[in-house]
Amino acid sequence: MTHSRWFRTVAIAEAISWTGLLIGMLFKYVLSDNEAGVKLFGPIHGGVFVVYVVTVLVVRKPLRWSWPVTLAALAASVPPLFTWFFEIWARGRETTAPDLRTGRIDAGPKAAVPSSTEANSTAA
Question: What are the helix (H) ranges across 28-101?
């Protein structure tokens, strides 16, 4: 498995575990005073959180992340679902705006540049 695929998998798993924990907390504190969701997703989220932090530190060099990008990835693990948002930003998908495509994960193929002089010539 490539570094980028491993990072994406762990980032999404961390967001899913956060979601499970939040749903468990909703049931525990708001809807029914049932602790089952928190007891189940608390340890799962804690484990996936640790795996995410270690993964960020391991993949930062192979993916050539600067320290500000690395710190942003680590900070994304704190608010719910932000690891998924960071993964979207870092991959640069789901946007057509060139200034929003960061290519920090699996940069897409570069646009081909015409090599013939006729294609680049402005002279008539």
Answer: 36-59, 67-75, 82-91
Here the tokens at position 54 are 């270690």
Q: How far apart, in Å, are the Cα atoms of 46 and each of 6, 9, 17, 20, 108?
A: 18, 16, 9, 12, 33
| Three-class secondary structure of residue 19 per DSSP | helix
Whole-prediction pTM value? 0.73
pLDDT at residue 111 greater than cutoff 70:
no
Q: Is the dihedral of CA 57, 70, 52, 9 positive or negative?
A: negative
> In which region does residue 75 sit, left (phi positive, over 0), alpha (psi from -120 to 50) or beta (all else)?
alpha
Q: What is the pLDDT of residues 18-58, one digit of tens each?
A: 999 999 999 999 998 889 989 999 999 999 999 999 999 99
Please say whether the dihedral angle defined by the alpha carbons of residues 48, 54, 56 and 59, taken in this order, is positive or negative: negative
